[in-house]
Specification:
By secondary structure, this protein is an alpha/beta fold. 45% of the residues lie in helices and 18% in strands. Pfam families: MutS_I, MutS_II, MutS_III, MutS_IV, MutS_V.
Amino acid sequence: MMAQYLEIKSGYPDALLFYRMGDFYELFFDDAVAAAEALDIALTKRGKHNGDDIPMCGVPFHAAEGYLLTLIRKGFRVAVGEQLETPAEAKNRGHKSVVKRDVVRLVTPGTLTEESLLEARRHNYLAAFAEVRDEHALAWVDISTGAFHVMTLPLVRLGPELARLSPSELLVADGDSENFRELETEFGLSLTDLARASFDSTGAEKRICSLFSVSSLDAFGNFTRAEISAMGALIEYLDLTQKGNLPLLRKPIKETEARTVQIDAATRRNLELTHALTGGRAGSLLSVMDHTVTAVGARLLERRISSPSRVLETIHARLDAVDFAASNARVAQDIRERLRAVPDLERALSRLSLDRGGPRDLAAIRNGISEAAYLNETLAQHELPQLLATSVSNLAGHDDLVALLDEALIAEPPLLARDGGFIASGYREDLDEARQLRDEGRSVIAAMQADFITQTGITALKIKHNNVLGYFIETTATHAEKMLSPPLSDTFIHRQTTANQVRFTTVELSELETKILNAGNRAVEIEKTLYQSLRQAILKKSGEIGSTSAALAELDLATALADLAQAQNWVRPTVDGSRAFDIQGGRHPVVEAALAQQSGTPFVANDCNLSADSDAAIWLLTGPNMAGKSTYLRQNALMALIAQMGSFVPARSAHIGLVSQLFSRVGASDDLARGRSTFMVEMVETAAILNQADDRALVILDEIGRGTATYDGLSIAWATLEHLHDVNRARALFATHYHEMTALAGKLDGVDNATVTVKEWEGEVIFLHEVKKGAADRSYGVQVAQLAGLPEQVIARARVVLEALEKGEREGGATQKTLIDDLPLFSTTPVAPPAPAKESAVERLVQDILPDDLSPREALDLIYQLKEAAKT
């Protein structure tokens, strides 16, 4: 056995080998040590190898999925070695023959299909990057849904696309992984080397054609050699990991950068589109917008948020669908109620195609297409916008399959086919017979005994059973003569004579005995055969089922976005080909939701109009910290994204000219792993914006230049704003504390000043969170520091220094060094606390009062006393 283990393991040196031993998967040697630590299970030993104990650990077969998930999340790959024959079959080959085993699957992060290993509401992409001469391409596939896409892209766009897709695993040519190690860290993906031969475009084309049974790829579109290489590498890897059992993939879709808004990784992170800065889903735009009721709808929503469209026809079609659902609330609510019962058709279909499914997946397909048929019948009565009409037309056409599955399956099947019991009674006569024999063998024998008594006229006839003869017919010697004589002797076969009894059998009884003894196994085998038959019937309709699933996702998303719009008072935006950007009463959806949940405080809505007559349209935003500048910047960037994904927006009104690129540089932190300071990160991100932004871009920038000396920072910020205006000619919001820059509004036609207003009251600053035209003349940094809790003596000293610096600036001529020399040094002597205020008469009265102890009359008397005390 150990020789077999070592032979199998030699083929998978980089994976943990799950070696099937009866009801357990066992691991040995270094695999056992690593797995025991990762899974926190006992490490034992079994036998010796080269004189040393062999470490061993194991996990139960029936609970293996949970352990697999833990190992995959911790970065391991697992080779699953199964028994390919029964111990009895092995014994037939020879007394000491070892049960045949081999790896049936290599489990990696990008090749998961089990429901328990995947997040239902997220895609799990496997991607491949290929380079052919000077061309680069990225292909990606989700084998749990069948989605298959490819695109050509420059090398500089690889990071942004990986940020958009968030693949679990990236395939690169053998030897190139070190060039991509930075991506592995940045995007949390698993990097896998694949033999360079797998990326050969000629061989790749043959693999693709073979997979889809076509002679040429022309029917799918025109693909570059790099795209073919990337797609072929994916197929080769799936063939390797699935051991030839390829998943059901849809025909490849070629994507282009020109059809979607380009958003880089830093912008996605800063805007918290699908993940909050803390790393989780909560607090992201996706979490607030997700009102979907199906898994396919949730995955479609994430794709739309990650890839807003730049095609006006597509945007308008999506908005029309949401508009219909919002205007027909009762119909939309009925749709959502039916959709709640729709299972995940895509993933059920994928598991069935890989033969990893079970009866529940058959039932999921049945239930899903049944609900689709109902929705088709209901919605066909309405005049629908084009997108919904197309979707509804794809819901029908499954009548025969529904009828077959309805007839064949019980309402709630078990998880595994091997458990049996999922085929409905009356579907197959031989199955019903086997079940009856299995469950009611005694009553069947009794019925046969009654038939024999009627046939022979011998009331003393009995059918009995023992371990030697099995089932037999027994009667007394007196009656036996009748059974030994014609015509009964033709039916009853003599088996044994004892002192007082004679025993017989019949062909019918012998067959029944065999059936009874094997009824349980036979019932299960019949059901397994029927399972495969039903599975094949479903797979023959896989294309139509896939289209139905996509249609259900569209219905779910349209009604979910309408539900969101009605609940949160969102409006339909006007999206066109102009350069307009006019938001009235805009709100940040995530901040607004958080305020409503935490304190019920209303969000202060603000306008933003970048629809200037000039080529560039930039608002220079000034105002204090904590006034809401960053929120304002982000909410307007999100407004464009939400509108172009095809949703209503959180505003009173919105007119948005198509945005081609979305850039955000809001907030930064050290990147110690790559030796970058906060300022360096800021400059790298700013450089990416200035080098890439076109005249259709929307840019939001916050505090450019803050991480260096004042004059250095001011000069960088100044030059950056001029570049955006003169070279990029983009629409932009530029927040800064360099008030000197407000002078640019008078010099550059496309720049306007705006400020976040505050109010001072008795030495304190009150944030109004309102944005209006104009410029701020101060940042109230000392007041914010006081709110943050800095020691009073630090605040007092800061006020002295600030006053001296401002005075010197007003009077002019005083250098910074002169001002510093004139200021007394910071005193290390603690500042004497201010004298306590004299206690008032009112304070003396209320000091010892316990309100819970007051009677109503006493409370009223107290009010009169307080009123009198207040006069003194």
